[in-house]
UniProtKB/TrEMBL annotation:
<dbReference type="GO" id="GO:0003964">
    <property type="term" value="F:RNA-directed DNA polymerase activity"/>
</dbReference>
<protein>
    <submittedName>
        <fullName>Reverse transcriptase domain-containing protein</fullName>
    </submittedName>
</protein>
<dbReference type="InterPro" id="IPR002156">
    <property type="entry name" value="RNaseH_domain"/>
</dbReference>
<keyword id="KW-0808">Transferase</keyword>
<keyword id="KW-0695">RNA-directed DNA polymerase</keyword>
<feature type="domain" description="RNase H type-1">
    <location>
        <begin position="9"/>
        <end position="72"/>
    </location>
</feature>
<keyword id="KW-0548">Nucleotidyltransferase</keyword>
<dbReference type="Pfam" id="PF13456">
    <property type="entry name" value="RVT_3"/>
</dbReference>
<dbReference type="InterPro" id="IPR036397">
    <property type="entry name" value="RNaseH_sf"/>
</dbReference>
<feature type="region of interest" description="Disordered">
    <location>
        <begin position="75"/>
        <end position="114"/>
    </location>
</feature>
Amino acid sequence: MYSYAIRLKFKASNYAMDCEALLAGLAAFANQGMKDLHVFIDSLTLVAQVEGNHTPTTEHERRYKKEIMDATIPFHRYPNKPSVEETSSNKKGKTTSNAPGTKLNFNREASGCN
């Protein structure tokens, strides 16, 4: 398990900070020969975009999504379970998270290494 911190030297929204952190993490591990990468994100909007359940509305969001999707090419995505599940007691369709942070799973294929 690795933990790291990054410092942005520009003003950024919470969304941009989440995207930059995800991109930095993907870049850090893409060439390390790792087979499994578990990314924990607390931005449901970003998770929905990466999962394909939310269409980016601005050009800025579209560019971040493209960068993130390009950075995930070395990894093979596999879902273990939904990141957010419906609760039976909540009839209005709201969701609750399974964990403090939402988790994206990436599994690197050996044949995809460069």
